[in-house]
Amino acid sequence: MITKGNVSTFSFYVRAFDTKNNYRNYGEPATQLSLEQAKEEFAKRCAQNPLSVNTMLGVEYSSKNAELNKHGVGAVDLLQCINGHLNLSEDYKLDEVLAHETLISVNAVSILKREADRLQRISDNATAKCAKRISDNIRTACVNTEAAEQLMKSLADEYGIDRVKDIVANELFGNNEIVNPKRFYTSSTSEDERILFLTESGAGRGNNLFIRDLKKPNSPFIQLTTDLDYQYYPIEVIGDQIYIYTNYGAPKNRIMVADINRPKLEDWKELVPESEAVLSNAEVIGGKLFLTYDKDASNHAYVYGLDGKQIQEIQLPSLGSVGFSGNKDDKECFFGFTSFTIPGATYKYDMDQNTYELYRAPKVQFNSDDFVTEQVFFASKDGVKIPMFLTYKKDLKKDGKNPVFLYGYGGFGISLNPGFSATRIPFLENGGIYAQVNLRGGSEYGEDWHVAGTKMQKQNVFDDFISAAEYLIDQKYTNKDKIAIVGGSNGGLLVGACMTQRPDLFRVAIPQVGVMDMLRYHKFTIGWNWASDYGTSEDSKEMFEYLKGYSPLHNLKPGTKYPATLVTTADHDDRVVPAHSFKFAATLQADNDGTNPTLIRIDSKAGHGAGKPMAKVLEEQADIYGFIMYNLGMKPKF
């Protein structure tokens, strides 16, 4: 952005200037004015010429700085300063903002449109109509001072300047989402660095997409989408065509194409339509589209032409996960492949012959020929069929006595595809079964599968996991004294909810960095961003009661025999704050009847998990597997 501060929060406001003066010398450049002095001076000038509104802009929001910078009163806006809604950061530089008018669109337009639409739905009065006109015309006004002046004069003539100021300040800015929005921004460029992509997320389940043509000096960002409930991700730019991966109008995803000269959503064309399988990834390599689809949670790969027609399927080594690598004009293509029994290997693919050869494979002391992976399907509590992968030794006997490592996640549209982990080797070699369940809440079957495990349908996720354990018992793979359940983050919530709902069904529980307090999770660090999946206790009485009904912390009962439990967290986890694990472990220790141990493992100088040094990873996994194998009665041989 054009300020020194953090780019995560912006707001929209109307700024007025005396038309006889240039903004750079509007105030005394060297004068340090207090906010109150600036308000008084600016209000006086605005009163002399109330309709001299030259532009509408977006600036960084800050409530910490009461003093203005060297640009003095020129940095104060008409509405917000007079009404006392917004203070401006000392880092703010007016000339830089006016020179780079583009990013007002990032939050201002989409938020204002949503708010204006809300007002329109609830009322058809002057307030709603005026707000709608502001939001509809904000794009042009932001980059055209004449258009901004005409808009304000038109609004003032129709509604009166006092009414317009009141609508903007109190109706639009009265919404805290507008004044202080919480957003994430990521940027990338096309391979030829012509187009800059900007994605905005942080509300809803998706993102907005903006583009900027870097070949044109001072070109503005153009907002392509305005609905944060859908996903829009650019794949590549070929000529004037932008290839985009999206679930807009397609819960199982599709490929659409936008023309750089007419890039907005309403002008996009469908290239590859939605299919029965879930489109999970797309790349442009060697002038072709490489599409990865999920079928029953396992990857399948296809090559398409840029015209959207299928050329061929790539037959992968087995059920597993694949990822392609290459540039849009490359003659060579590589892909990585892994499964539960195949460590991640790299293959070189011949596009013309549709063949591949092993390029590089890691050296792992593991004989994959000794093991087998099968996929089973079982009925959940409501009858929905749930897939599960099972990996174990080929000579395993289904005698109901095998130890099971039951893993799941079930949230935020994250699919659990097959993958290799060296940490599982000792467990598998000592007769264990690794079971990975594809719960609702993920995206294995598209967005509908995801939504079926969110908010007031979250119990579906726990029912799926419990049903998986019951299936393994019914089919004689194991028994309730041989099952360990494991999950991290949202998966930690899964483990916490299941062990409190069915403490009799599991022998060991490992909730890792879990969300355990569902009534207050949104009040800590990034927790607010999970509301699209969970809902919050502040949404409604019904949502409060629903969350309370499964919140692990609030469903522990004194005198209950809970599974042997190892809670794990870290002192610097700023994603799921360790307080979740601290409170849960303390309450569990107090309520457990004492039959089984309750421990908490608190890592130091570590966070949620990403980027953890290998030494810490090994130490943690050794503790987890040691705890599991001991409490399942295993006598491992290494």
Could you give the topology of this structure?
Layout: E1 10-15, H1 35-48, E2 55-60, H2 78-83, H3 94-99, H4 104-122, H5 126-143, H6 145-159, H7 161-172, H8 176-179, E3 184-189, E4 195-201, E5 207-213, E6 222-223, E7 232-238, E8 241-246, E9 254-259, E10 269-272, E11 278-285, E12 288-295, E13 298-304, E14 310-314, E15 321-325, E16 333-338, E17 345-350, E18 355-360, E19 371-379, E20 385-393, E21 404-407, H9 425-429, E22 433-437, H10 447-451, H11 459-474, E23 483-488, H12 490-501, E24 508-512, H13 531-534, H14 541-550, E25 564-570, H15 579-591, E26 598-603, H16 614-631
Parallel strand pairs: 21-22, 21-23, 23-24, 24-25, 25-26
Antiparallel strand pairs: 1-2, 3-4, 4-5, 5-6, 7-8, 8-9, 9-10, 11-12, 12-13, 13-14, 15-16, 16-17, 17-18, 19-20, 20-22
Structure, described:
- The structure is a single chain.
- The protein is α+β, with helices and mostly antiparallel strands.
- It is about 30% helix and about 25% strand.
- The chain contains 16 helices and 26 strands.
- It has an eight-stranded mixed beta sheet, sandwiched between helices.
- Helix 5 packs antiparallel against helix 6 and helix 11 crosses helix 12.
- The longest helix has 19 residues.
- It is globular, with a radius of gyration of 29 Å.
- The two termini are about 55 Å apart.
- The relative contact order is 0.06.
Number of helices: 16
What strand order characterises the main sheet?
Answer: 19-20-22-21-23-24-25-26
Structural class: alpha+beta
Report the biggest beta sheet as strand number plus sense, adding barrel if it closes: 8 strands, mixed
Radius of gyration: 29 Å
* Mass-distribution shape: globular
Beta-strand share of residues: 15-25%
